[in-house]
């Protein structure tokens, strides 16, 4: 099996988040989690001045583009290319060109590998983010995404939540 690389997809302007949501839904429906690993709309923090008041906001780094970490094959190409709002991959003709590590570095997306000391079945505590101070049992570990899936109680039900390695610690 070939390794996953980052590709750039051109979208209609303003449809970046919709395209991301559509691709994420298709990945889930077609069980392509092992082939299309991540879909990103890179954002940057900016300070806007409106009516004399400074306000922190997030703005798209590349309007009209979405980054996808995937294994390129006929199935994944077809799924992404035929997603509503996608106009095509970036590259000559219909041949997508993956981004190099040098191109990915300034985006801050290439993460260094984190060595973890936990495994499926271990109890962990969430130390940051929306689920801070939550305790859960690891159901799955995704080393590609550098995340764990734990079950948390939400409205009286066990609900799976995906959390990054750096946001959990072993109990």
UniProtKB/TrEMBL annotation:
InterPro entries documented for this protein: NGN, NGN-like_dom, NGN_dom_sf, NusG-like, Rib_uL2_dom2, Transcrpt_antiterm_NusG, Transcrpt_antiterm_NusG_bac_CS, Translation_prot_SH3-like_sf
PROSITE patterns cross-referenced by the UniProt entry: NUSG (PS01014)
SMART domains referenced in this protein's UniProt entry, alphabetically: NGN
Record-annotated NusG-like N-terminal domain positions: 3-111
Keywords annotated in UniProt: Transcription, Transcription antitermination, Transcription regulation, Transcription termination
One Pfam family it belongs to: NusG
HAMAP family in alphabetical order: NusG
Family membership: Belongs to the NusG family.
Protein function: Participates in transcription elongation, termination and antitermination.
The protein, known as: Transcription termination/antitermination protein NusG
Biological source species: Sellimonas caecigallum
Gene: nusG
């Amino acid at each position: 099996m070939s390794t996953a690389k980052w590709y750039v997809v051109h979208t209609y302007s303003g449809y970046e988040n919709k395209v991301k949501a559509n691709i994420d839904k298709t990945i889930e429906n077609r069980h392509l989690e092992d082939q299309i690993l991540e879909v990103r709309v890179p954002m940057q923090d900016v300070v806007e001045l409106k009516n004399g008041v400074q306000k922190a906001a997030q703005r798209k780094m590349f309007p009209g583009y979405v980054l996808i970490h995937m294994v390129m094959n006929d199935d994944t190409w077809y799924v992404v290319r035929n997603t509503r709002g996608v106009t095509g991959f970036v590259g000559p003709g219909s041949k997508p060109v993956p981004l190099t590590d040098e191109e990915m570095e300034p985006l801050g997306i290439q993460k260094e590998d984190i060595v973890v000391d936990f495994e499926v079945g271990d109890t962990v505590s969430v130390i940051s983010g929306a689920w801070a101070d939550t305790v859960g049992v690891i159901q799955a570990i995704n080393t590609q995404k550098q995340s764990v899936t734990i079950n948390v109680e939400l409205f009286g039900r066990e609900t799976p939540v995906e959390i990054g390695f750096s946001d959990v610690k072993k109990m």
